[in-house]
Amino acid sequence: MKNLFKTKDVFHCAFKFDRKMKLLLSFYLISLFQIHAGPLALNQPISIKMEKVALEVVLHEIENLTTYKILYNDNEVDYKRIISVNYKDTPLSEVLDAIFKNTSITYETLNNQIVLNRDKSKTQASTKAIPIRVQRSITGIVKDKQGVPMPGVNVIIEGTSIGTTTDFEGEYALELAEAGSNPVIVFTYVGMKTVKKTIGQQSTINVQLEEDAQSLDAVVITALGIEKEVRKLGYAVSEVDAEEVSVNRSTNFMNSLQGKVAGVNISSLGSGPGGSSKVRIRGQSSISGNNSPLIVVNGVPIDNTSFGTNPGSTGNEPGTSDGGVYSDGGDGFSSINPDDIESMTVLKGATAAALYGSRAKDGVIMITTKTRSHGQGIGITYNLNVTNHTPLDYTDYQYEYGQGENGVRPTEANPTSGQWSFGEKFQPGMTQVLFDGVEVPYVPVYDRIKKFYRMGLDVTNSVSVSGGREKGGFNLSISNLKSEGITPNNEFERKTVSLGLTQDLTPKLNVNVHINYSNEENINPPNVGQQDNTIPVSLYNMSNSMPFDLLDQYKLDGNGNEYVYSRFRNRTNPYFTLSEQFNHIKRDRIFGNIAAKYNVLDWLFVQGRIGQDYWSRDQQYNGFPTGQASRGPAPQGFVNGTFTQDVRKFRETNLDLLISASKDFGEHFNLGVNLGGNRMFRRSDASRVDVTDFVIRDLYTVQNGRVKDPTYSLSERAVNSIYGAVDLSFNDTYYLSGTFRNDWFSTLSPDNRSILYPSVSGSYVFSNDVAEDSNWLTFGKLRFAFAEVGSDTDVPPYSNALFYNIDPNFFANSAGVLQPIAGAASGTLPNPFLKPMRTSELELGLDLRLFDNRIGLDFAVYRKLTRDQIIPAQISNTSGFVNTLINSGESRSDGFEFMLHLVPVRSEDFSWDINVNASYNKTKVLSLLTDQPGDRILVGEHIFNGFLYQVVGEEIGQLAGFGYRRDEQGRKIFGNDGRALPSEDIKLFGSALPRWVGGITNTIEYKEFNFSFLIDFKLGNKMISGTNFNAVRHGLHKMTLPGRETGVVGDGVNLAGEVNTVATEPQQYWEVVRASQLIEPIVYNGGFWKLRQITFGYDFKKFIPEDSFFKSARLSLVANNVLILKKWVDNIDPDSFAFSSDNVSGLESTGLPTTRSIGFNLNCKF
Amino acid sequence: MKTIKHILLFLVLLGLTVACEKDFEEINTNEIDPTAVDPVSLFNNAIIGTSFATGQLKYDAAIVQQIVTPNSGLLTGGNHNQDNRFASSEVWDDYYETVIKHTGVLINELENRPEYSNLYNMTRIIQAFSFMVLTDSYGEIPYFEAGAGFSSQILLPKYDPQSEIYIDLIQQVQDAVSKLSFDGENVTGEVLYSGNISQWKKLGNSLLLRLGMHVSKVDNALAKQTVQSAYQGGVMESNDDNYVIRHDNNFSNPIGNFLNGSEANNFYLVDTFVNFLNDTDDPRLGSIAVRYMGAKSGTEQIPENASIEPVDQIGMPMGHDNSSIGEAVSAAGLESFYGFSQVDRTRMVKVDAPMYLITYSQTSLLLAEAATYGWISGDPSAYFEQGVRAHMELMGDYDSASAIPQANIDSYISNHPYDGTLEQLYMQYWVSCFLNGPEVYANFRRTGYPDLTPNPYPGQDISGDFIWRITYPSSELAVNKEHVDEAVSRMGPDDLNTKVWWDTE
After folding, report:
1. Phi, psi angles (nearest 5°) of residue A734
2. What is the pLDDT of residue B11?
């Protein structure tokens, strides 16, 4: 019974609903105080026959036979004592009397609980000696934040030994003695914040308890769903309160966690609702591959494929990045409804995650969804969340010179400049002639973002019904999220149904089921991060005197084609794109698992589980609509345009088996052993047809296409694993754990297929030894951990051979006979000798709680070494191939992270909590193809300019490109025409990855009000800004203003070394960023400080009558992305990247403007 | 006991799990994509891949003053005599990643398989042609180790001196031609000549003739010997023998695509070229050119405004950018630069226009040169006439609306007999190589004709009068720098001024 704490319920993972179990734990506390309860006749007859079993087994059997729960303090009761019993229809009292005959144990009853104690006549004589005069009764109900009654809460009068516990309905009754002038009643419960109330003249005191993340006894879910007390862990984990993602929310719930978890770097992408969230834990270990954490839902991994954008990336992420469409189609997180989340744990280090072996390289995000209600009976929860999104305009363009080129404004029909603002200085009375001859004033047109985009709106409705009894429960929820993106034709809708069930079929067998279904539909996710065929780039570079109403009016010419408004035809009129281009994505996803757990013995259970994640995804889009000006005409008899139909299916099945044992040896030792195996099989396939040009205009179907290009691809992989863990503890002070996992990979050659991953960790609770009587040290722990994990995710299946494609179209030979054409399927040279990459990590940590938890510090320092990295090394294309995968790279991440929790004020009605988290991470590349400093590989390219390199001896993710050519004194060198010359060699500008990531949350609670705000930051990273690149060459950037009338004279020298005096026409001068790839002017510090979130909540508990069917109601006003406090980059939000891939980190290309969201969250329980 | 049973059961399950590794081979087998295909299909891919990329418009055609754009940025190159490595990498990337890759795989696999002897030797000819284009453009290039990524795992091939490359190319082509056998296998599936061995031999010899002529300045003896060998072997005898990629709507002409797409309004015929054709009453001007009369913008380049009359054609002068082109526009009395003449994208560079890589016309003109030197027998003026006539007759193959009536051809030929000067020959070669950038550029460097006025654009990256070489792609500098540096140490700097080996003073 007692031992189930340690390894209980491996599969359903929720810890909150196991309150009955925790009753035991709470008895450590209860037994310290006098329990006032009348003796109850235990005359129920029972029949029991057991031979030579531990006392606890007998007690457990009595529990099964009766309605009583037996509670005891295991320090007082020798529950391992071996006894035999044999009674038939004997009153329970007689049985108990016999069992405890000749011991000092007495028993009492409390409602339906039997409480065992040492003989109080001896141990608590002093307590009894105080005469107690009954004055009056205090009664009340204790509930949790959700309004669910809480059984087993300790209720005592401060400074006395008077106390009781709440019953299963959460009710308590207490007889108050004369004890001090102003008695205070204290409610305590494991894992919850202690509540104190002054009694005054009240006779009824109802309280709500809140979870206390800082609690020493808090239990977290670790790898494989094994629950452990935080105090025991030798490594860092972070628990996330479900409210962090459900109250102040975004369409991808992970985005709400930005700046909240130490060591976790989350970027929400500027790619519209339903888009991906880029999550990186403790930096980026892989030089060029996948760095996304594993997502585990209810103990089973689910797919987190991101269909984000990654143009220019040399990696092989899937993504939606072709056929003219570069939109973010979401990721694995985006199908989860935050209301279904019960708890989340982030396993940050390799040790924490080592039991996940090959998939744990980048940490694990473990999500537990709801399975049952927390109280008795049926409860209904309704949650409404409404948020409004305002697009933010950070452009600070010049509005002195208007549209035109080379200092001339458009004065005739049709030669519209459209995308250039190198025209004339605005003067009153000037006009410009646009399109087919419309003459309009030549004046600045401000607020392009507000003029084009609309307000976005997200509405989420979710209802859940849950029920629970002692032996089981369920939770069923349905939700609907409807999101209108800021792009006027973009809508995202997600419907989810989630069912959780748990049931004890027999006292020994528990079955647990989770099923989650989601249906997502994303209509017109915007094209982002591209130069051409995308709204944001056209819009951000639109001439600063272009009237938007005209642009809209003239989107089509007489034939229904795009009206050419700029000689730069690739910059499609945004209104044309809006009206003609479409992109529909639908995804159906069902994931879940069934687990059965059988308690073979009290200290041993076996669990089997089968889990599956299945999704199918349909996408249809016309990357280039018919009539788009950047496309050439179709052959006679056809109209131009493209259309793509893409259908993908994905299935991952996990079968696993676990044996878990935990046993005490003697008084001080505990040993826990877990052994398990897993078989993972994943299959994904994609059917796709691209067609070019059409027979019938505006009929976008594959049949209607002129050139049809069908492809089908299939990928399968399997990993078999065995794993085990041993946990040792001594005196609740010293803890040691070891784990191993061996994986076998189908993608690797037999020689390299089997990999063993070990880990070891330990902790020492020094406060037990040094601070018994300390009044300031509440808790102190030192911990260490070491682990080795790996990853084969960067080895695609079938990387061992060169494959060929048959071109879907034939080509006529000279005799006119059609002939097949074939070619190598890939530009990647196959390498059959790949092995998984390996990451080893050493972590040291300190956990300190001071002054009764008023100060808490959790500090971790780590060193992570990743070797045998699988690198798509760019090779000379003269070999015939562009790159090849090799096992070579090595990188080292050093960092630390801390969470500091301060409680400057804590009183009955008012509390102020400050949570500061920050992490510092620096990853250095130690070797690539060689370990020569300076050896480098290209991992990604910006669309037009700039590269992302990995360079030996430098920080990972080096942004690079041509800078200014400089002489020995550092002066810029200009050519004979006065234009800046590019450097001879490519220059490194610094790492694209932030060194510092963190946030500061202030939470103030006053009575029913709570208020919190979060300031977060990322610092120490560089970026190459594609938006500013265009703003410079199009004459919108303020840096292009000097010399508009006279020509720009660059500050530097000419080729002869003399001071440069040649004036250059500004448009030509700034064109060098494009023509010479001289991108130094648009390299920026990419850091920021943001006021990320504000939440203001009110709890209506005051207005809810005691016996109302209405249990609770809370309203929160939320604001997200409130303010940029500090940034270094011009014209954009540095956080608004559109790319999901690490291979294009820091290479900004215009995405959607970021939005500020303001809304409310209403949560009601019935 | 129960516990032990469970543990045993567990171990059995575990054993089963591990045993399942057996299906890993099956799981890791790609059932969709083939690992082997008919080599002819790969060969066809290589042949189609030799069609020139658009880089030839940005550099070659501009340097020899046939086609130019006033726009900078992406299109910069020969128009402003500036180094634009996006444009310069195009031929390189296309050829190495498609042609050299696939011919490399084929040569490696077919070398010792007699049943593929003809295919093998055809492949060598196509590969040699590609290497010639590459080395003519860039100078030293990876040659001996190129295209061997798959066969020999050579990831960073070394660069080879052009002199060595040329000697080997000549040998390879001679050897391949000699081994093409009428008794060998019949490669009817190949798209160039449907397996016609005699035409392949003629192609090989015509290529050899070209190779020989390219080295005439640097190694006259080698040139003479090579040209004679080619002539004796038998070169192209009619337009039917042309090395042409017959583009269709699926495999479209890269230049046609480009000039019908986003760059439709940006490239113009150079006045040098238009004036030469005009001054000589060359009927080909009417086949090549179009002018959109009075066009004030790209959108006004519509059929209603189009004129293909030679008399209406006005070429764009060299040396302008978007701002300074205004002067030229006023000087020509036009509404805008959109009113200059263009190569007609509805005829000669339509999307499915054929692309000619080696023609009977060019071959004949080279024979005229060889005959003038006395290297081969025959009447130079007959070869000359044959070369001019063949190109004029080819116009109709681009588009029926470009066809030149036989009478016009005859009258041009009789009005412009060969005067025996090389200049006249080279000027005709210049016209005959229109839209064959690499060859026209090579011949300009070799012969100095046409005698062009240097591009007057003010901001140039060159120190001499002309661009003498195309620069390496940035990607090579990034990944294969060591070998690039070796090449530079032999050849000279990787800039636009360094001359290739055969381009001596």
Report:
1. -110, 130
2. 60
